[in-house]
Amino acid sequence: MKKNFLRAAFVAALLSAASIAAGSMIATPAFAADHLSKDVAKDLQAAQAALQGKDLATAMTQIKAAQAETDRSAYDDFTINRFLSSVAAQSGDFATAATAYDGFINTDYFKTLTPEEQKAAYHDATIVNQNSKNWPRVIQYGTQLEAMKGLDDLTETMLAIAYYEQKDNVNAKKYAQMAIDAAKAAGKQPQENALIIMGNIEGKSDPDAA
User: Fold this and answer.
1) Cα–Cα distances in Å, from 20 out to 78, 134, 173, 200?
2) Mean pLDDT to the nearest integer, 175-179
3) Distance (Å, rounded) from C-alpha 149 to C-alpha 118?
C-alpha cells in the first residue's frame, strides 16, 4: 500500500541560507548601475529590520508597501521578490513563496549572485515547491542545484518524491537511493520519505525484498 509522504521536516529545513533575510541584500546591487528606488529602499529596510526582530507580519506589511510603490524598476522587483520569497516561506505561504522565487531566480540579476547564494536559492525554491506540490518546479530547481553540486539528502529526497509523483520510477528510485546513501555517509538516519519510495517501488517487483 502506498504510504503518505511527510511534510513537517521539509518546512523545518527551509531557508538553508537564511540568506534571503540577510542584511547584504539591500547594500549591494546586482549591477553597479542599478540601485533601489528611494521609496522601495525605505520599505525594504523596514522589512529587513522586522526580519531581524523575527516579526514576520510587519516584514510582510513592509514588503507589500514596496510592491505598491509606483515606477518600480526591474531591480526593485528582483529585490522585493527576494525578500518576499523568504518571508512568505517562513510564514507558511508556500504558493506566494514559490511565485516570488520564480520572480527573482529567472532574471539576469540572479546570474550575478555568488554561486553560494544561487545554491541557497535553488535549495530553498526546491523545498518551497515541494510543499506546494509543484513537481515540475521541484525537478527544475533540484536539477539546477544538482548541476552546481549542491544537493543534500533532503533535496535528493524531494527530487525522488517529485519524480515518483510524475510516475517516473526510474528517477524516483535513483534519487531516493542517492538520499539514503548520502544520509548514511554522513552518519544520519535516512529521510523517511526516501525509504518509503524505495519500499513502494521495490514492493511492486519484489514484495519480499521491500
Assistant:
1) 12, 21, 32, 36
2) 96
3) 12
